[in-house]
Specification:
This protein has one domain: Gcn5-related N-acetyltransferase (GNAT) (Aminopeptidase). It is 38% helix and 29% strand. The chain contains 5 helices and 7 strands; from the N terminus they run βααβββαβαββα. The N and C termini lie far apart (43 Å).
Amino acid sequence: MNPEIALRRAVDADALAAADVWLRSFAAALPSVRCAHDEDDVRDWFARVLVPQYETWVATADTAVVGVLVLNGPELKQFYLAPEWRGRGLGDQFISLAKEQRPDGLSLWTFQVNGAARRFYERHGFTETERTDGSRNDEHEPDVRYVWPGREEEEGTAAA
């Protein structure tokens, strides 16, 4: 039986579970990338910064947190799914939510080595706008910036 999936704003009590999803997902999706912070630092960052100060959303399956998405203004700051939830449509639901929350457009950074994420964003209408050598991120990993222009731009392009 498939569990009930809910997307909702995170509350303080979700911080540790959301951090654990981030940690497991990072390890599974990015095995060649050195995580710049230890597990305790990541959990503290979720509890002190991401959940209370940013627009943080979680996906829950029954009562378990299985995904996390963090928005800060027009930027999608964090987006991670529990490894066992990849490829099951949850990412599509989250991106739809992000676009609903930011209809004027979104931008994000992902690592260049994360081919699956890059294909996912491109499939959802994001276009690559910049690449860096990684000197500005904590991992010092080459990254790529993606932009989704917003609903009006997307609809205008589709109509053309």
